[in-house]
């Protein structure tokens, strides 16, 4: 198991229009720092398609964790 140096937590509520750009910007920035990181995206019961956008675009990335709170 690789020790993570940083975990960025991003709360999400009805952000389908911008969440893709926000997560990608953070991931690119952290990747350029050359550190071990995770991005934890927490969807807090969005009523739009935020969760679908997250799963459709980021389920393949090991450094992005998607959580759903109800």
Describe the structure.
By secondary structure, the chain is of the alpha/beta class. The chain has one domain (6-69). It is built from two helices and three strands, in the order E-H-E-H-E. It has a three-stranded parallel sheet with strand order 1-2-3, with helices on one face. Helix 2 links the parallel strand 2 (37-44) and strand 3 (64-69). The longest helix has 15 residues, at 19-33. The termini are far apart. The mean pLDDT is 95.
- The helix content is 25-40%
Major sheet details: 3 strands, parallel
- Note the total helix count: 2
Instruction: Please provide the ordered H/E string of secondary-structure elements.
Output: EHEHE
What is the fold's blueprint, element by element?
Layout: E1 6-12, H1 19-33, E2 37-44, H2 50-58, E3 64-69
Parallel strand pairs: 1-2, 2-3
Entry summary:
With 70 residues, the protein is α/β, with parallel strands linked by helices.
List keywords for this structure.
34% helix, 70 residues, single chain, globular, 2 helices, 3-stranded parallel beta sheet, alpha/beta
């Amino acid at each position: 198991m690789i020790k993570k140096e940083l975990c960025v937590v991003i709360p999400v509520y009805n952000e389908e229009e911008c969440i893709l750009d926000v997560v990608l910007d953070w991931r690119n920035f952290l990747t350029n720092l050359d550190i071990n990181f995770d991005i934890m995206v927490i969807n807090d019961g969005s009523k739009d398609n935020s969760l679908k956008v997250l799963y459709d675009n980021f389920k393949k990335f090991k450094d992005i964790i998607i959580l759903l709170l109800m």
